[in-house]
Amino acid sequence: MMRCLESLLRVPHVEPYTGFDISPDGLQVAFSWNHTGQWEVYILSLDGSTSPRQLTGGPGGKFNPRWSPDGQRLAYVLDLDGSEAYDLHVCD
User: Fold this and answer.
1) For residue 48, what pLDDT is reported?
2) Residue ranges of the domains in the chain?
3) Which of 45, 48, 63, 74 has the fewest CB atoms in 10 Å of its CB?
4) CA gap 46, 29 in Å, rounded
């Protein structure tokens, strides 16, 4: 039986265009969040045992995180100056 993700935990407000992705092992969710006034990529355990952990920093907005198939890396796009010219970045 499938459970609705909403019933597992509440995640911070996520704009639909910023994206989120559930890890291949089903244990974490990666998402973009403007918590500090800057769009950054965060991860959160789906069991609700931890607070969101910020993975990125520095200038520019980071959006649409996606897990690698093995769950070891996250790709995201960076809009450095707000011009909507996106660069692809990967973090371990």
Assistant:
1) 85
2) 5-91
3) 48
4) 7
How far apart CA 9 and CA 57 sit, in angstroms, is 25
Structure tokens at 16: 């639909």
DSSP assignment letter at 16: T
pTM over 0.85: no
By the 8 A CB rule, do 71 and 24 touch?
Answer: yes
Q: What is the C-alpha separation between 33 and 41, in angstroms, rounded?
A: 6
Cα Rg, the chain, nearest whole Å: 13
State the SS3 of 24-71: CCCCEEEEEECCCCCCEEEEEECCCCCCCEECCCCCCEEEEEEECCCC
Which residue in 69, 63, 62, 20 sits closest to 44, CA to CA?
Answer: 20
For residue 41, what are the β-bridge partners?
32
Residue 2 has pLDDT above 50, yes or no: no
